[in-house]
Amino acid sequence: MNITIVGVGLIGGSIGLRLKETQFCDKIIGVEKNEANAKKALQRGLVDEILPLEEAILSSRVVILTVPVDTIMNLLPTVLDKVTDQVIIDMGSTKTNILRKIEQHPNRGRYIAAHPMAGTEYSGPEAAIPNLYKDKVMVYVEAFRTDEDAFEIADALTEQLEMKTTFMNAAEHDMHTAYVSHISHLTSFALALTVLEKEKSQGRIFELAGSGFESTVRLAKSSPDMWTPIFKQNRDNVLEVLEEHIKQLQNLYTKLEKEDYEGLHKLIKKSNKIKRIIK
Question: Rounded to a whole number, what is the largest CA-CA distance in the chain?
Fold first, then answer.
């Protein structure tokens, strides 16, 4: 069984590394339009060879799309047009618009919408690591629309990655990811912009940056090429959560402005309830 990975960066490259470790397939083929990234992917052994998309599809049993979500939107119908019995797995982090676009495609059953809830702030082939997915969650979205044999292959691949699984519909998935993933990145981007603005007048500000600052702002190193399309595709949900986030920031601002330290203490104590979810 040959597997094609379209987009051999952090997500795709980490899949390639793990599948080669477990010897799950005979060959891993990469499709990568960036020549420098293609060369790095081969050098690091993330894939066995680089082929053009059409040739890779014809040579493979499974095709995994790990490119930005706007590229998946444009690419997926074309990929499904070329399918006979191949399995197409999309691992983008938004689903509603993608699923709507291919809803009536005659090869819809060969496609599974999946989202691995894993990643780092780094990107590109050099960022790939074999244990990226271990003990993380793979979300299957509207899996009931996928042919049984296609789902079984996708789920076997997920087992190789040592992931847990859960099932959602598209609206549920996109709303939840806005709250637990997308807002975290927006907040980090905003904090980085805030501190960088202050650095213009106070150039020594980063001398005091410790682990707390680093852990809070690390997501600001994430790729704009990946995250701008995510915010675009999940705009309504992201705006909803951003509105609530701004409201909570305003609450904190007001308590501090009015020197209501008892109220501020109550808000912070209330926020500590997150320990029920994050240990």
Answer: 67
Calpha distance 230→227 (Å, rounded): 5
The backbone torsions φ and ψ at residue 140, rounded to the nearest 5 degrees and listed phi first, read -95, 130
What number of CA atoms fall less than 13 Å from residue 218's CA on the CB side?
A: 11
More confident residue, 209 or 159: 159
The mean per-residue pLDDT over the stretch 108-124 comes to 95
Q: Are the C-beta atoms of residues 180 and 234 closer than 8 Å to each other?
A: no
- Quick one: pLDDT at residue 78? 95
Domain range 173-276, its CATH number among 3.20.20.70, 1.10.3660.10, 1.10.10.10, 3.40.50.2300: 1.10.3660.10
What whole-number percentage of the chain has pLDDT above 70? 95
Structure tokens at 166: 């859960």
Q: Are 195 and 34 in contact (CB under 8 A)?
A: no
Helix (H, G, I), strand (E, B) or coil at 41: helix
Mean pLDDT of 79-108: 97
Least confident of 75-84, 172-181, 250-259, 268-277: 268-277
Token pair 């509603």: residue = 96
Cα separation, 83 vs 80, whole angstroms: 5
Tell which phi-psi region holds residue 253, choosing left (phi > 0), alpha (psi between -120 and 50) or beta.
alpha
Q: Helices then strands (H, E): number in the chain?
A: 12, 8
Amino acid 250: pLDDT: 97
Q: Which CATH architecture has domain 2-168?
A: 3-Layer(aba) Sandwich (3.40)
25/32 Cα distance (integer angstroms): 20
Checking if the pLDDT of 202 tops 90, the result is no
Average pLDDT over residues 10-19: 97
SS3 category, 199:
helix
